[in-house]
Amino acid sequence: MVGGRNIEFYKNIFTTYIDMIDSNEISWDNTINDALRRLSSYYRHQIDLLKGYETNQDKVIEQTKIITGWVNNIGKLIEEMSKLKS
Predict the structure, then answer these.
(1) Is 83's pLDDT higher than 80?
(2) Sign of CA dihedral 59, 62, 66, 72
(3) How far apart are CA 22 and CA 1, in angstroms?
(4) Which member of 1, 7, 47, 85 has the lowest number of beta carbons within 10 Å of its beta carbon?
(5) 13 domain-assigned
(6) Residue 43 domain-assigned?
(7) Following DSSP, what letter does each residue of 22-77 receive, concatenated?
(8) Number of domains in the chain
C-alpha cells in the first residue's frame, strides 16, 4: 500500500501516463518526473523503516536489495525519459 492505495493503482496511473506520452497527448514534464521522484523517495523511506523494524539482518539485506532495485529502476526511467524529452 502506498498512501492508502495498492501498488496496482499507481502502476495503472504510470501506464496511462506512458500511453499518453506515446500518443503525444501529454509531454514528459515536471509533473510526471516529480511523481516518479516521490515514489523513489517513498521506497527509500521504506528501507529506513525496514531497518528499524526487522530484527533479522538477513531479511533486511535481502529486502533492501529488492527495494534498492526498484529505486534504481525509477532512476533509470527518469534518465531515459529525459533523453526522449531533449
Answers:
(1) no
(2) positive
(3) 28
(4) 1
(5) no
(6) yes
(7) HTTSS---HHHHHHHHHHHHHHHHHHHHHHHH---HHHHHHHHHHHHHHHHHHHHH
(8) 1
Q: Is 70 exposed, middle or buried (0-12, 13-18, 19+ CB in 10 A)?
A: middle
Return the half-sphere exposure (C-beta side, CA atoms, 13 A cut-off) of residue 40. Answer: 15
| In-domain check, residue 64 | yes
Q: pTM of this prediction?
A: 0.66
- Measured between alpha carbons, how far is 25 from 19 in angstroms, rounded to an integer? 9
User: Are 81 and 33 contacting, i.e. CB atoms less than 8 angstroms apart?
Assistant: yes
Q: How far is CA 51 from CA 2, 10, 63, in A?
A: 18, 25, 10
Q: Which domain holds residue 48?
A: 30-85
Please indicate, yes or no, if residue 10 is contained in any of the structural domains.
no
